[in-house]
Design brief:
Two copies of one chain form a homodimer.
Chain A lengths: L11 H7 L6 H9 L3 H9 L3 E2 H7 L5 H13 L3 E6 L5 E6 L1 H5 L1 H22 L11
Antiparallel strand pairs in A: 1-3, 2-3
Chain A binds a DNA duplex through helix 4 and helix 5.
InterPro entries (chains A, B): HTH_HxlR, WH-like_DNA-bd_sf, WH_DNA-bd_sf
Keywords (chains A, B): DNA-binding, Transcription, Transcription regulation
Pfam family, one (chains A, B): HxlR
DNA sequence: CCGTATCCTGTAAGATACTG
DNA sequence: CAGTATCTTACAGGATACGG
């Protein structure tokens, strides 16, 4: 592997992170990074939700997109869906233990965001770039 | 706000995360989540890199995309670019302190990935979904 | 209430070729 | 070496309407 040479820098951080290139961080970031999933998971973290409740809570999401996200999260074992055969129909979504474990890395991202996001926004004002503005 | 009712669940986690809905976690996740940025930052974490070095290290990236990502990271103050007016030309990219601070949330994601990603992959095998497979 | 079904759009990214 | 210039593709997401 010639991707990284930890000796190039004295810091211990580099060594720590060299391995990450072989680890599945990227797919997990895809998982976390999809536009709505974080809001869905955060809402579910506050308690079980029905479809329409989520739809209201996650402002702006369309039913199609909400369904798609929920199905994906369910497939990955992060969210569980319980269907009640009643009239009118009822479906309840909640976080699985695996889904709840995601709150830990979320927290780290959140902490970083609170501390540094303002700095980035300041920089962006009056600048332009090819890269997405992320918001 | 009626987006979340922390009292719905006894757990302390919910209260902790209720605030996150108002915080800039999402844009930061966009920042981290762009397909290549994590690999770029991780490589730069190991030491200063020239354009071509990054191109080799980040396997599969095209120069256009690499440039676009680097410009965005530079705009946001995560990466600095130093140009040497020499022949042949030389440009060196490195992480700013702000960029290095990103390694902390990365680490949290990475830890989660190592612990739980296998579980998710197992679940995905033999299943299909509307959601992107993320890898 | 809980979704599906279509159609459409925006944009990151890929392929390829070229320049200071 | 360090990029830029086009063109094209893939796909999450948006708008809107309908079905069980």
């Amino acid at each position: 592997m010639d991707t990284i040479d930890p000796d190039q820098r004295g810091s211990g951080t580099a060594v720590l992170l060299a391995d990450t290139l072989d680890c599945p961080s990227r797919p997990v970031l895809d998982l976390l990074g999809s536009k709505w999933s974080v809001l869905i998971i955060l809402n579910l973290a506050a308690g079980t939700c029905r479809f329409t409740e989520l739809r209201k809570a996650v402002t702006g999401i369309t039913p199609k997109v909400l369904t798609a996200n929920l199905r994906g999260l369910e497939r990955d074992g992060l969210v569980s869906r319980e269907i009640f055969a009643e009239v009118p129909p009822r479906t309840e979504y909640s976080l699985t233990p695996l889904g709840e474990s995601l709150l830990v890395p979320y927290k780290a991202v959140q902490d970083w965001a609170w501390e540094h996001w303002g700095t980035i926004l300041e920089r962006r004002e009056g600048q332009s770039a090819t890269r997405p503005a992320a918001g």
